[in-house]
Specification:
Layout (H helix, E strand, L loop, with lengths): L1 E5 L3 H13 L3 E5 L10 H6 L7 E4 L8 E4 L1 H12 L7 H31 L5 H24 L9 H10 L13 H11 L2 H6 L6
Parallel strand pairs: 1-2
Antiparallel strand pairs: 1-3, 3-4
The structure holds glutathione.
The site of glutathione (GSH) has 11 residues, from helix 1 and helix 3.
C-alpha cells in the first residue's frame, strides 16, 4: 500500500491523479499546510523540504519501503514502477521529461508566484503582479503552440500532462481565459474528462 501525504493543491493533485491513472491502491494522509503540519518533525523526515506531496511505498525497490518527495520525482517513480505514462523509447522518453521539467521549473513556480501576488500578498504590488501575470501568459503561449502541433505535451498523454493539468485548472486564479489559448483549452477539456483525473482532483476529500 502506498501512503500519499498531500493537501488540496496543484502539486498534491499531480500525485493523486497519477495514483488514480496507474491504478495503484493508496491511502491519503492529509497534511494541512494551512496549519503548518508540513513542519512536523516526523513529516520532515520524509520531506526535508517541508512541502506536500510525499509518498511512502511499502513495496519499494528490493521489496523495502521507500519515501519519495518532490512531485516530479513521485511521477517518475510511479511511472517506472508501473510502466505507465513515461515511454521507454529514448526519444519519446526525453520528450516527456522535457515537458515535465518545463512544468516543474516554469509552470509550477511562475503560476505559484502569480497566485501569491494576485490573491494572497498583504499588499498589492503592481510590479510583481505584472511580472508574473506576463510570465504566465508567455508560458500559456508556449503550451498553446506545442498543443497546436501535438495532442498532448509530449505527443501521447504522459506524466508531463499529469503535472501540468492541475496548475492550468487554476486558470481563474491567474486570470487567464482559456478561450484565448484554444489548443490549451482543447487539451484541458480532454484531460478533465478522464475519470482518473476527476477522482484525483477530489483528493483529499473535503
Ligand atoms: N517542488 C515541490 C513544490 C511543492 C510545494 O510547493 N507544495 C506546496 C503546496 S502546492 C506546499 O507544500 N506549501 C507549503 C509551504 O510552502 O509551507 C514539488 O513539486 O513537490
Amino acid at each position: 500500500m502506498i501512503e500519499l501525504y498531500t493537501w488540496g493543491t496543484p502539486n498534491g493533485r499531480k500525485a493523486s491523479i497519477m495514483l488514480e491513472e496507474v491504478g495503484l491502491p493508496y491511502e491519503v494522509r492529509p497534511i494541512n499546510i494551512g496549519k503548518g503540519e508540513q513542519f512536523a518533525a516526523d513529516y520532515v523526515k520524509i520531506n526535508p523540504n517541508s512541502k506536500i506531496p510525499t509518498i511512502v511505498d511499502g513495496d519499494g525497490p528490493g521489496g523495502r519501503a521507500i519515501s519519495v518527495f518532490e512531485s516530479g520525482a513521485i511521477l517518475i517513480y510511479l511511472a517506472e514502477k508501473t510502466g505507465k505514462l513515461l515511454p521507454t523509447e529514448p526519444r519519446a522518453r526525453i520528450q516527456a521529461l522535457e515537458w515535465l521539467m518545463f512544468q516543474m521549473g516554469g509552470v509550477g513556480p511562475m503560476f505559484g508566484q502569480a497566485h501569491h501576488f494576485l490573491r494572497q500578498a498583504p499588499e498589492q504590488i503592481p510590479y510583481a503582479m505584472e511580472r508574473y501575470t506576463k510570465e504566465v501568459r508567455r508560458l500559456y503561449g508556449v503550451m498553446d503552440k506545442r498543443l497546436g502541433a501535438a495532442a498532448y505535451l509530449a505527443g501521447d498523454y504522459s506524466i508531463a500532462d499529469v503535472a501540468t493539468y492541475p496548475w492550468v485548472s487554476r486558470y481563474e486564479w491567474h486570470r487567464v481565459a482559456l478561450a484565448e489559448f484554444p489548443n490549451v483549452e482543447r487539451w484541458f477539456k480532454a484531460i478533465a474528462a478522464r475519470p482518473a483525473v476527476e477522482r484525483g482532483m477530489r483528493v483529499p476529500a473535503a
